[in-house]
Amino acid sequence: MAWIRLPRFRRAVNVFNPKLFESLSLAAFLAWVGLGSDALSSSAYGPPEIYYALKGHEYLAVFLAIGIPISVFIISAGYKQVIALFPDGGGGYHTASTLLGPKAGLVSGSALIVDYVLTAAISVASGTETLLSSLPAYWYSERILIDVAILLFLIFINLRGMKESIKILLPIFMAFVATHIIMLGFGLVSHVGDFPSIASNTIAGARHDDQVYGWIFIAALVMRAFSLGGGTYTGLEAVANGVHIMREPRIQTGQRTMTLLATSLSLVAGSLIFLYLMYHVHEHSGQTLNAVLYTAITSDWTIAGIHFGPTATIITLITEGLLLFIAANTGIITAPIVMANMAVDRWLPERFSYLSDRFVSRNGILLVGFSAVAILLATGGHVRILVVLYSINVFITFTLTMAGLSRHWFTQRHQEPRWKGRLTISVLGLLVTASILAITVFEKFDAGGWFTLLVTLVVVVLGYLIYRHYKSIRKITAELDETMLDVVPEHLEPGPNLPLDPRGATAVFFVSRFDGLGLHTLLTAHRMVGGFVKNYVFLLAGIVGQGEFKGIKALEDLKVYVEAEADQYMAFCRNEGMASTWFATYSTDRILAMEELADVAIRYFPQSIFFAGRVIDNRARGPFHGLLHDEVSFIVQDRLQHDGFSMMIVPVHVHGIPSQPPRIELPISMSPDMELVQQEDADKEGSKAKAQTQETGEATEQPTSGNSQDAPRN
After folding, report:
1. Is the CB of residue 76 less than 8 Å from the CB of residue 236?
2. Rounded CA gap, 582 and 490, in Å?
3. CB pairs under 8 A, 24+ apart, for 185-191?
4. Which of 442, 580, 431 is nearest to 514 (CA)?
5. What is the per-residue pLDDT across 576-590, written as a single tens digit (0 to 9) for each?
6. Which parts of the chain span the membrane according to its record (predicted)?
7. Is the C or the N end of the chain the one with fewer CB within 10 Å?
8. Nearest alpha carbon to residue 290 among 133, 123, 60
């Protein structure tokens, strides 16, 4: 929040440094590590949920082991199209907003925010349970404290920067990949001879169930298992959301990352489901299904007569648990990106679009992280409860994304020569995701799915109310602009350069653009101090938020815009005969930028008096006004006053000052002179009222005498 001053890890950097984006961007491999860990880590809870749903009909695991990779590649192919269409990131949110409309985007973004908060919560909880599977049972009672400590650590490292957090966690990711290649590869290769018997058992089981229950039952059971294991797919969205942080060329880097992610997820999830069937694993108390599988695979691992199977199982479980913590980190990384994009479109408070001095959305990280902590505390950290809440929302976004792509390619059929293939992929993705969403909602609604939908609905409603508030503010400022800009000549010429007096009194204005608020502040200050002020100085801060942090070109456009607005102030002042100049800077931190600009103004004009405008509309002001608007002017005012400089915040009442005088309840004493003045004012008011009465009487041809006896009686 604007009034909370968190410590900076370093001073503000030069946002125009050409090497900045290269140093902060991610290559395909690092993007796979940072954004793909969510999908890979879902192997700890997604495939087990699928296998549990087949209880008594485990032979169907063969179909699911084949179907999951196919569905993963269908969805990922759709998201490759999203990456190509929206290389600046935004994923499902931008796809739904652009191709289906802003309200669809609001629903998609709200679902994603809730999903990523749950991603952080369930990943940490599942990771802790995985690690505790290899420890004594009494450790399990401490899991909540461990969960909270891990989340706080992840919040801290993400505040230091996205790339730094990924590099810290890179060894864990690579250890997971290495151990699971060995574990799953050995499990499959060592039982190759069982493949024919598994195939024959699958055919026999399918024939039996078809005769007893019918093929509709089999299809429904398979779809139910797909839906209950929907958490397996959740990481696919993250890559499309984070394209803007990838290295150029972004589209190719993003699509390569998506290919790496889809391939690795398909191999791990498909292999696990097949191995459950191959090793006939069953749930054991105090152990995850993967722990039971790894124990079975390593049961006869020996070297020189030494049995090291338990050690290998523990190492694999540790890497799996730690990868789940990286997946939680993915939620903390990606949710603020979605929130920042929504804040740019005014569905969320504008502060969520701001970047910190480490180029991360600090407000979003804090909100997502502490929301995940609250969910863990509320659910007791139980994975089975969190899974129920988890997989619905991402399929809302998947479905809206595929629907938007399908609509787009159909409307582009006359312009895009390859529209048929792309439309086919989009429609297939829509069928897969929509069917899984419908079944998941139906299956999990009574088990807690209603709560997820309710929370998502609350976020949607809040987003709409926030947007309506900002819309009303835009209308107010537009009215103010229209009124105030009338004083500006139609063809504003800068006029001759007027000499500045650095030793003279100087009025310094914090402005954002050439608008009604800035002009009202300037004219009010000129009316108050114009008699002795020699110089007029304008300070403009170009704030680099999520909407501008797309590359050097976007920053150059911001610089051109800010300087053009500043030149208009200088032209207006010179046209009015006032000596003026301006200073501008560019930063991710609005408060830091304003403080730096104030320091520059003081250095050049030591006799500075500072002014800032503030729009006030009592009708639009509510209890959450402070959350929706960053009142940074008060923070800068406090700092300047401590340094011995005056700053006035000029109120701009767009609908006039309230006509009702304030109520006075306390006894007030005053000097006799003041009482005389008030008596004179009262006499004047009485005379004025009498004159108005006389005028009214003349207009109606009634007697004008103030004597009530002369007036006609009713």
Report:
1. yes
2. 22
3. 186/297, 187/271, 187/275, 187/278, 187/279, 187/293, 187/297, 188/271, 188/274, 188/275, 188/278, 190/297, 191/278, 191/279
4. 580
5. 888 999 999 887 777
6. 59-79, 104-125, 137-157, 169-192, 212-236, 257-279, 322-344, 365-383, 389-410, 422-442, 448-467
7. C
8. 133
Are the CB atoms for 623 and 472 separated by under 8 Å? no
Tell me if 31 sits within 8 A of 257, measured CB to CB: yes
What is the C-alpha separation between 559 and 1, in angstroms, rounded?
Answer: 26
Largest CA distance in the chain: 128
- Write out pLDDT tens, residues 161-219: 555 566 666 788 888 889 999 999 999 998 888 888 888 988 998 898 888 888 888 88
CA atoms of 410 and 426, how far apart (whole Å): 10
- Region for residue 89 given its phi and psi (left: phi exceeds 0; alpha: psi -120 to 50; beta: otherwise): left
Q: Tokens at residue 542, please?
A: 């170009």
Cα gap 301→277, rounded to integer Å: 21
Strand, helix or coil for residue 541: strand
Residue listed under structure tokens 């959740």: 234
Residue 652's H or E segment, with its range, is strand 647-653
What one-character DSSP code corresponds to residue 352?
G
- Round the CA-based radius of gyration of the chain to a whole number and report it: 33
Here the tokens at position 50 are 């699928």
- pTM, rounded to two decimals: 0.74
Separation between Cα atoms, residue 629 and residue 472, nearest integer Å: 13
Distance in angstroms (rounded) separating the CA atoms of residues 323 and 130: 10
Please, what sign has the CA dihedral across residues 506, 511, 514, 519?
negative
Q: Could you give the domains of the chain?
A: 23-401 (1.20.1740.10), 487-653 (3.40.50.620)
